Structure formats: C-alpha cells, structure tokens
Protein: Lipoprotein
Amino acid sequence: MSGGGRAAGVAVGLALLLTLSGCAAPDPEVIALEAQEVFDELVAAAAATDTAVLRTLETAPPRQERCPGEEDHSQTALTASGVVSITADEGEAGRIRDDLAASLDPEEWTTIIPAVAEQRAWISDHDVVVTLSADGPALVIAVFTPCSASSASRAFASPVGMPYTG
Structure:
C-alpha cells in the first residue's frame, strides 16, 4: 500500500472508530431540538407560577451570537425574562429559579459554576447550556446551543414574544 493509500485507510478507520465509540459530533438538528425543548419546558414551568408572584414572563426571539475568537462560528441564544410582583416576598425570584433548577434531570444536566452568584448553570452531553438567574425582582431563563459553523441555519419553532402577564 502506498503512503497516500495507507493514510486514507487510517483516516477511514479513525472515522469509523469515532463513530462506533460515540464520539461523533451530534446532529445540529438534535442539538437545536434539545435546546428548544428544555427552553419550552422551563418557560412553561415559570409561566405556571402564580401571577400574584411572577407578574410577567416574556420570551425573546431566538438570536444568533458570534462565538468569541471564532468569527465563522455562532451559537443560538433562547431567552425569557420575568418580573416578580412588588407585593411578593423578597427572594421570590430566587425561589422560582431554584424550583426551575429542580426540574432539570441531573442525569441529563451537569451543574457548572457560573460567573455570577445569582445564577445557576448546567450543561448537557451535547453542550447545550442552561442558565437561570435571579437578581432582585428579575428572573432570566437562557438556553445556549454550542458554537457551530452551521447554527445560523437552524430554525426554532417555539412562539416568541408571547407575554405571560398577570
């Protein structure tokens, strides 16, 4: 076998090994679906909060963000923000955040250390990141897809800009 043929054979063997060992990159559509599903579940759970406590909850349209240091790569951010009623007990946003956090399956979501004390964060096996933040009366739900060259082509089917008000 020539040097070029041997290299091609090694490359094919390595690709097969990676595929069989589960190290192949997941399908971007699977990642997008995972991100959308967890976002929708968290928003639905937050929306079920008593409106005397969580006065508003509004989703924003999905947005593409450039990945730091990788101009040809981007990630999708899904966000929702809510405001706790001024008549609610102090710390209600934190309680809602903690209730939402408890809904994440620890076998699917690994806790990561966020940069901000008021924030909780998790990462999935597909590198989807969930952050839940509570700062004063504000509650923020954010889900991020991993950086990808093809994330700009993904479509998210969830209705956006739909306020949940009390």
Q: What stands out?
A: The chain has one domain: 26-165. The longest helix spans residues 28-47. Helices lie at 3-20, 28-47, 92-102. The beta strands are 54-59, 63-67, 70-84, 109-112, 119-124, 129-135, 138-144, 163-165.
